[in-house]
Amino acid sequence: MQARNIMEDIVIKYLDEMLALRFDLCTCEICRQDIIAYVLSRLPAKYITTDSGTIHAIMQQLRLEQSSLILKELAGAINIISKQPHHEESHDRNQAYKLLMEQIKVDRGADFSHYRDKVLKRRIALRMRSRNANTYSEYLQVLIHSPEEYEKLFEVLTINVSSFFRDAVVWDHLKTQILPELIARKKQQGVWPRKIRIWSAGCSHGEEPYSLAIMLYELLEKEKVEINVEIIATDIDKACLAKGKAGRYDQMSVKDLNPYYLRRFFIPINDEFQIVPHVKEFVHFKELNLIHDPGIMGVDMVICRNVFIYFNRSLQEYLIMKFHGALVRDGFFVMGSSENLLGEARQVFENVNRLFRIYKKIIVEY
Fold first, then answer.
1. Distances (CA, A) of 242 to 69, 96, 159, 166, 284
2. What is the CATH number of the domain that holds 296?
3. 70 lies in some domain
4. 356 shares its domain with 216
5. For residue 57, is it within any domain?
6. How far apart are the C-alpha atoms of 232 and 302, rounded to whole Å?
């Protein structure tokens, strides 16, 4: 009666999943077998007879017990084997990737050189798989011969994930502490007309700037004070900006929205919801490349959340200082919950709420 090590079956299944979108390394049969052999040499074997009726149940149990160890060993094996494959490489994947990114820059003027390679490669891989391209060189040919592919590529490369009042505790703090402070400042100013200016950077489809507009409308209505509001919402993605300008959202976009806000600030139109005009007029959408274009100067607040994670450290530092320059004295800067101040920025911003990543611009006297 023949026995086999079913750990091999489990390793192969996990390996298939891990290599599905790895176009940045060799996944030929030689390398696959080398990876499998390396991992199996470091795992305890589990032999069973091939005629056992409980193979599936045993495999399921092993996956539950050993998954963390198997995935760890696989990640290590992939890293080792990909750097020293036991065969001649037919092409340089790193060079092909660089050529691809250079061609994207030449064709569309989009410079992703400051983005993290791991993020870019993972997102590009989604389009490569969709177009049945097995190498970066093949995908480059797709872009050259089918320019319409760029639209799909930019959909996955740019950051379009947002929702109304995303991270409710942060928005509650903005509504109860930060925005009232801005309003109080404007009330004390002798300058007329009084105006609150906010830059929503990386605004995606507009949920973030419209959330700000709704809150400011409510607060100004409660205060019974006349202060103009200008929220400049910027993004590099033209399709996102077009949707934001339209101010119309489907049921999925508003499914988590407070019913009170939905009733008061949205107009139902068929299966969609339109932002009411008196809130919509607060927000102005503008195409802007955060890296290369001038910033929006003289603003009371910059809100840029969950964008920095896609940039490398040097660019993060550059952008934070760019936002610092855009803010008026004591202006507020709001980041995403997983993002942090870096470098010189720690000296020129004061912590207002470290947990919610809210900071205030300070002027350092030298």
1. 47, 34, 15, 21, 11
2. 3.40.50.150
3. yes
4. yes
5. yes
6. 10
